[in-house]
């Protein structure tokens, strides 16, 4: 019989209960033959929808067809199946976690029986988990991966708390900055030696701050060619963004009229911008971004909000000859690169 370990579920308050955090006991998962079992040390509160990430570089993927299939997954304990625990806040639902904890950093506790001895990873190594399709919830003491290719070893210089921030938010930010690079190159080529490409990053959460830091590093050799501006939605993000002297900052104060915010942004950017990286995720934010964007410009948004926002704004963008581009989470190769950049201090990690 499998031993038990603790698992936490973070949910929305139910009709009869106002608590949001619940603790359960679940079976310790068996180690996959070619995979590993990880002792979870840190798991981030991420909001990513459960959908297939950008994994073109991965040849073999363990997937589930829907959330319901994951909820009904057989967690066998001996010969008798053990179902996920009943949600205390939402009667009739099992495993109603809204924050499953995809951002996982921990320590390799066991390796599968078929893992070769010359593999790069060893028991005791500190790792971060790439959130592949079908990844289990990370708010448990142990989590398994079917293949070692989903694990990225982290350097001793990086804390596990910082490492846990990288797999979704920071990785999405990196992929967005990289997707924008092609447009930056085209714009600068068209404008010649004296050309300037202006980028506006919207938001102050982890996504926007990671994008700001990654973009500042990525374009550090092109400071005279690329202008970065952060449109801050909150005071705390405004103060953090000011740490970068090469980055302009404009505060989007929601108490102001919309036209005032747009004019304030254009003043800070010295006119309209060529590229917007918008992590605001709302109709109002995207509408404002389009007003600050030049004709022929492009707005990058997360693919998770694209389904909701594109039907509302695609026609308007076409009329202005603008483009809205959804961006998926980055690849596992990008995660390895991100770990290297943060580990060496080339990109500053969150504190």
From TrEMBL:
The keyword Secreted does not apply. SUPFAM superfamilies: GroES-like, NAD(P)-binding Rossmann-fold domains. InterPro entries: ADH-like_N, ER, GroES-like_sf, NAD(P)-bd_dom_sf, Zn_alcohol_dh. Residues 19-340 form the Enoyl reductase (ER) domain. GO terms for molecular function: metal ion binding; oxidoreductase activity. Pfam families: ADH_N. Keywords: Metal-binding, Oxidoreductase, Zinc. PANTHER family: L-THREONINE 3-DEHYDROGENASE. This is Enoyl reductase (ER) domain-containing protein. The lineage of its organism: Eukaryota, Metazoa, Ecdysozoa, Arthropoda, Hexapoda.
